[in-house]
Amino acid sequence: MSCLRYLRVGCLLAGLAATCAWAQSVSPTAPVRILVGAPAGGSTDTMARAVAHAMGQQLGRTVVVENRPGAGGNLAAEAVARAAPDGQTLLMSFTSHAINASLYPRLPFDPVKDFTPLTMVSTSPSVLVAHPSLPANNVAELVALAKAKPGQLNFAIGALGSSLHLAGEAFKLKAGVFIVNIPYRGTAPAVQDVLAGQVELMFAAVGNVQQHLRAGKLKALGVTSPHRLAALPDVPAIADTLPGFESSAWFGLFGPAKMPPDLLRTWSDAARAAVQSPDVRRRIEAEGATAVGNSPQDFARFVVADIARWREVVKFSGAKPE
Predict the structure, then answer these.
(1) CA 319, CA 322: separation in Å to the nearest integer?
(2) Most exposed residue of 5, 71, 143, 209, measured as fewest CB within 10 angstroms of its CB?
């Protein structure tokens, strides 16, 4: 047998041994942890908890959610990137996983190479809302107003570097307008100041402003999805006025890199079945989001493309990590 053949056989045996070692080191009764890089009660946490219970039923295992907020989701992501690829530690991440690749000069992990995508859980378009006093009732009128009054209109920003912040930057880039950002520490105070008329505009998750739209305390100018949303059927897509505009948050489940193929298939199948279950779909839709549950391959391709898509917007915005 040639040296090359010996080397190939040796590598194959080493890989099998590593896989067996992972399998032997994991207790079949040990809980699976889904780390969330955001506080309890937010959309990412809600998605994780909805999927965890249903995924546990699919696997016949206990699946628990552990919140590790901080650094725009990077603390939780780093912990998963460094975890053993044995399926015991997963990550429920969100749009910042792609945004942070450009927003942070250095990350302690590679957002593509250090993770195994399992499935995209959901997508969540946002809505551009305004205080009722704003003399613009649609996107075309807003663009005209912003061009007539450059720097005199303001966007409330719940978190710098977030998908909602960058939706505003993408809007300004696409429309060729200058609107000033007013940053807040959280979505709630940003919404409150738009309700009070202190700030004219903001991009917001549908679930965070739907009640105010119904009450007439805010008005919706457009949604960030390519087409109208079932939750807001009377609100046109921004893309109707600015062709090609789209900006949706997404939530997805990852494992560490180098998960064995059989394990990847089992965990991905369980996650996808969980996402498509009626109870989980209802909880996702209650958040103003749309359930996805795509394949690991499709999700992996999406992440690579999304990192490239946000790079231009981050550069245009000049945003820096908080």
Answers:
(1) 9
(2) 5
Rg (alpha carbons) of the chain, rounded to whole number? 22
Kindly report the length of the chain. Answer: 322
Between 57 and 26, whose confidence is greater? 57
Counting Cα atoms < 13 Å in the Cβ hemisphere of 169 gives: 21
Task: Record the tokens describing residue 211, joined without a space.
Answer: 């009640």
Q: Give the CA-trace dihedral at 161, 164, 167, 169, to 10 degrees.
A: -40
Q: What is the DSSP letter of 127?
A: E
Question: Rounded to two decimals, what is the model's pTM?
Answer: 0.80
Burial of residue 110 (CB within 10 Å: 0-12, 13-18, 19+) is: exposed
Question: Angle, nearest 10°, between helix axes 296-317 and 163-175?
Answer: 60
Which amino acid, residue 162? S
Q: Which residues contact 308 (CB under 8 A, 6 or more apart)?
A: none
Residue 22 pLDDT > 50: no
Report which DSSP code applies to 237. Answer: B
Task: Give 282's DSSP letter.
Answer: H
CB burial of 296-309 (b: ≥16 within 10 Å; e: otherwise) equals: beebbebbeebbeb
Take residue 243 and report the two structure tokens written for it: 């062709």
Helix (H, G, I), strand (E, B) or coil at 27: coil
- pLDDT one-digit tens code per residue, 289-308: 889 999 999 999 999 999 99
DSSP 63-120: EEEEE---GGGHHHHHHHHTS-SSSSEEEEEETHHHHHHHHSS--SS-TTTTEEEEEE
Look at residues 160, 289, 175 and name the one whose alpha carbon lies nearest to residue 241: 175
For the chain, list the domains and their CATH numbers. 28-124+248-317 (3.40.190.150), 125-240 (3.40.190.10)
Q: Which of 15-19, 207-211, 213-217 has the lowest mean pLDDT?
A: 15-19
Query: What type of residue sits at position 13?
Result: L
What's the average model confidence in pLDDT over 75-96? Answer: 96
Residue 58 confidence (pLDDT) above 50: yes
